[in-house]
Amino acid sequence: QLQLVESGGGLVQPGGSLRLSCAASGPTLNFFTISWFRQAPGKEREGVACLSAEDGEIYYADSVKGRFAISKDNAKSTVYLQMDNLKPEDTGIYFCTAKWRTYCSGDAQQGNYWGQGTQVTVSS
Known about the structure:
Layout: E1 3-7, E2 10-12, E3 18-25, E4 32-39, E5 46-51, E6 58-60, E7 68-73, E8 78-83, E9 92-100, E10 113-114, E11 118-122
Parallel strand pairs: 2-11
Antiparallel strand pairs: 1-3, 3-8, 4-5, 4-9, 5-6, 7-8, 9-10, 9-11
């Protein structure tokens, strides 16, 4: 089965940058649509970004548009989330998830496979 492991989280000051990684083992990621979600204490899980394996569509939540970028390296079976100009409101646990051959359709997609999450804390 496909397994996902997130890494790259940590403590960063407002305005700083982090790059999260989602490393996959098992089947190739070629036909999986990958999304990133985040969850802060006391809040519901929020879709952040989506990269479609069907048509290459990329989706970003309005709150991160222009600051975050999702990308994929098929040779390394890894998906990245580059996060720039971070704000305290970006604090939370970030999860990657994979769903077989689907479209983003203007939203992040919850898949059958999830990583364990990586903590991002933005604070001075």
